[in-house]
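Re: the 502-residue chain
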Amino acid sequence: MREMAQDRIPEPGRISAVESADGDTRNAPPAAPKGKRPQHTGILLVVLGAVFMALLDATVVNVATPTMRTDLDTTGSALQLIVSGYTISYAALLITGARLGARHGFRTVFLTGLATFTLASFGCGLAPAAGVLIAARVVQGIGAGLMVPQIYSLIQLTFEGPARARALSLYATVIAVAVVVGQVAGGLLVSADLFGTGWRPVFLINVPVGLALLAAAVRLLPVETPRSAKGLDLPGLVTLTAALLLLVVPLVLGHEQHWPLWTTLCLAAAAPMFGLFVLVERGVARRGGAPLVPGRVLRSPDLVCGAAALFFGMSGYAGFLFSFSQHLQSGLGESATRAGLAFAPLALGVATGSLTWQRLPARWHLPMITAACVLAAAGCLGIGCTLRAGGQGGLVLPALQLLWGLGLGYTTSPLLTLALSRIDPADASDASGVLTTVPQLAQVVGVAAYGSIFLALADRPGAAGAPSAIASAQALYATALPVAAGTLLGAPAILPLLRKRR
């Protein structure tokens, strides 16, 4: 019984405790000051509102991209960069952002990131051309990369015991739900066409919300003394970012430019650059520095298996979501509102899975994740098959979206818990940074790879001059096949842990 208890996936809040069993708190955020207790509910609303806004912006533009394409007279590749530019800078900065918070104070860096995000959102909303919008999205991602890593530490700083567990459970739920709610919100904002602004409110809405969060954060967030912290590992940051750009940019631009030589060269150079990143990290460790991704963290089988399954699931989710949004509006001619509301069953499924998985017996958690990967793959493939002939899908479509959402919900939240379940307390911060980065990188790769498959096939006329709706439907089906296959890879990624716990 004792061994079985140790194998349980712990509740959120217990998964990466920053205090070791012998009381070592050198790597922990300072405890909340005694005497004057902070306003816990207000703090939680501020930090969850910030993470919701940041993650919402990773997907809210999906429904708006067809309108952007017309209004800005731009290309499908530019649309992918508008979506991915934010996520690239966001993902690349997450670990570095966490270390900046430790060096300069979580509150200070959170406020800096939130202010940067809000200002960049204003720039996105006023962008006159696609190039300006892409640049503003990159700055927006930088703000999110500074802001989001502080949220976990601020929760640890503010809450204790069961209250911390509840706060982190809500945090995981917000992460899972925000990315889907963005689709619905984007559709409503674009169709409202407020004051004739079209797609721009999907960004401008962040300005009043961001200013309100800034005002509340200045008043509510606790002021803590910055700790002596690990170095920033700028060589690791530069080589990782270069490797990501070599992989993503040719995938995004290649199909429209008919795969010129430079795209092949970039893709060929991506693997050596990732290899160089590994060498740089080892060199930093040998010199006694703090590598961006510590080797001992990556030796945790829970983290590696969990992160791999998370990558497969999130890359398929992001890529198919982008493609599905394009098909609904560009292929079927749906309004942004109807396209956004079409994702409501998906949001319901994700929320249901995220909020109910902990009610299952602990011994079911790992098999549940494996089954959920199959469920998500079946949902994607079913959507592709149902819409293959160019129809609307009828009542079957929301049912399949609900199935897809349940698969995502029963995968994402438990994987975030599983991957950190056996990390040494001293490595909790770095491990959390790695795990936060993986879903963002997965979304970049998913939109670039799967989105490119869809756009390349949707732009190609169908047989005997088939109408664009059928060409788009066939492209969505062709995209669903590799998405389902990739999502299924999450199941074998978990199998080593299933065998280990028997």
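The two ends are 13 Å apart (CA to CA).
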